[in-house]
What we know:
By secondary structure, the chain is of the alpha/beta class. The chain is built from 9 helices and 13 strands. The protein has helices spanning 13-24, 90-112, 148-167, 189-199, 217-230, 247-258, 282-288, 296-301, 303-306, and strands spanning 3-8, 27-33, 49-53, 75-80, 116-124, 170-176, 178-180, 203-205, 211-212, 214-216, 235-239, 245-246, 265-267.
Amino acid sequence: MMKTAIVTGAxxxxxxxxxxxxxxxxxxxxxxxxxGSAHNxxxxxxxxxxxxxxNMEDYDKIGAxxxxxxxxxxxxxxxHLSWGGGRDDFDAQLKNIDGSLKAMDSAISFAERxxxxxxxxxxxxAEYGVKPDSKELDENALLEPFSAYGAAKxxxxxxxxxxxxxxxxxxxWGRIFSLIGKYEPSGRMLPDLVMKLKRGEDVSLSSxxxxxxxxxxxxxxxxxxxxxxxxxxxxxxxxxxxDYKELKAFVKEAADHLGADEKLLHFGNDPxxxxxxxxxxxxxxxxxxxxxxxxxxxxxxxxxxxxR
Length: 308
């Protein structure tokens, strides 16, 4: 029996990769996007895909957009990835929390229509704030966000978990660290680094002493899908590769792989705030069987074909 997936933020970076992963695994996928997005044509002519367009403030009405045959007596996984606004845009972050709770209302409505429902919310390493990198960071760490974005993600986590428990909805939360790969937007550090090195341009960077973990977005999509299928109710999972090292090592590895002169790299001062993580993915691996499959250099090699 085919399972049904609802994906908010379906046409964005992480969401688009998730949609493709779900389609490859025989889900009927409802891709929830917003009207007017430049990326709404990403899945033209895909089998088992049903695109729906609705604004986040109306997410409590998603249920009305889903065909009854894909809900009644079906297993439905609601993947909530949609999120907008700047990191310190307080008004936008409050709207994100409200929209997330409305998404849960729609998930609850599916249960009321006879579906077996799981809700997977996607958070961020920003929820942790600044932590010492002397040891691995696991999911039990205290949440100390320093941005409105991180605080809103943390608030959404607590509120959604509480609401899901009261409604007896299976709930899982995943915290993404740093994704690279297909559909990655320009303006981010790594694709811009690769572009400039290929052009032989100088690149100004921070000290890059901080520990970092890059995960290809295709692997992240698999992890998110597995959380929907195997994640334990009420649990939080770090979503990362587990192959962390100093950011400077990633930068130099990319430059060497591209045949670029390291003299193009100019390292400066430590960033402020100094965010450095060694994320533990032990829990994710043990509960779901997830293993990252795409190497950092494979992601770099795919940039020409995938960054758009």
